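Sample A.
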Amino acid sequence: MSLFAPLSLLPAFFVAVFAAGSGQAVTTLPRPESTGFSHPKPAFDVVPLGVKGGLDESNLSAYLVAPTGSQDFICLDAGTVYSGVRQAVRQRVFRESAEAVIRRRIRAYCISHPHVDHVAGLLLNAPDDTAKSIYGTEACLRVLQRDYFNWQTWPNFGDAGPAPSLRKYQLRTLAPGEETSVPTTALSVRAFPLSHGPNYPSTAFLVRYEQSYVLYLGDTGADELEHSQRLRELWQAVQPLVAAGQLRGIFIEASYPNEQPDNQLYGHLTPTRLLQELGVLGQLTGPEALRGLPVIVTHLKPTSANEATIRRQLAAANTLGLRLIFPRQGQRLRL
């Protein structure tokens, strides 16, 4: 049986539509001829399991990614897992139960940093999960094993640490910049360091399928405020992919509106800071290369009128011509 409900052939729209005869919610993306970004068919299926940056514990950062049509996903961050999969099942993205999707279809986790809003779903679902790998930097995995999988905060589902080690999860270190194939999938991943507040590391994951890529950034502050060159170094690394049209999308956060004081950003971005950083990428590629590039805006703090304000501020200042996408939990994107 196919994992996905069937899709009918539809024109592309910015908004979510329902595939004829299936009721399946799917977000498709336009490919205007006037932009620098155009592909005849998608390369990746993305299922957002959680898209917010706090407050709602049932909707925290987590994104399933697989080659289009594949049943073998990796999960980029895991703040929310079960609630997000249930939403996707309700919207007929998956034919199987939520439990079956988690156990059989999530092949591995890639964790950008071990803050609780990025790992809570992984921890809570561990007792009912199947054996699989967790990928991350050495610093990230050290915190997972020491501070969570320690028989005090949570049972030791890791493969080291206090006895008994249940070894359900194999913690696999990603060396910065080195590509690692993810077993039982057609995907490879490379990790790049980010700065998420003073002396606190986060990670970007560059995911490859054949000759196509998506770039997922965990929480990050702007280089100027972080006194860092992490984002510039990341843009330099992906610049050839953007220029060649191989980068299918960038997942990047905008946690707060522009009114948030710099000293209260806590290693996050505003619309102005996000667009400034992507402007640096545009300087490297030439601005035309960014026109129409899908930018999936993540980690919005769902407090007060933040979300509406962030959307409005991004749209008003989008002189780069980016294709801004605001993902919805459980609704599949194709890139």
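Sample B, a different protein:
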Amino acid sequence: MIGNDIVDLKLASVQSNWRRKGWLQKIFNESEQDRIWDAEDSNHMVWKLWSMKEAAYKAHQRLFSLSPRYNPYDFICTGANVTIQNYNYQTVSKQTEKYVYTIAYTDQTNFISKIFTDESLQYKRKLVYYIANVMDVNLSAVTLQKDVNGIPCVKIHNKVTDIAISLSSHGSFSAFTIDL
């Protein structure tokens, strides 16, 4: 299972004042808060841990076909791992001065991930093109849609496939991760 999340750091600085009283305590346990305050760049660490939790949540939701229920305090970040209800998700994060991007997964398989730096929905078109190419089907045969729980899925010739995808966008950045 896979999940991903991207955070536009410029937009996050405008949208959320993580330093306001009580915000960290709602999202992060004491150990995670220590990691934030001990980090060389606390702002980056906040959004890295947030991104790890969000990516793991998406993988967990997909794994169990859960309806949306995001409670980040219950998702425990230890090193590069996130634990949700005794299930462990490994993560890999990429940080730049402009964004933080995380992929969460249960098994290192054949996932591919791409980051886009525009505000358009190009990443969805690129994903459809990639799937059509890999699956050797006509581009018009591939569609993306969300299931009843809001989990994105791939349809080929109007039939739901077991291809795992995760989509994320925030501000000027978007990304997809796919496990074929």
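Observation for Sample B: The chain has five helices and eleven strands.
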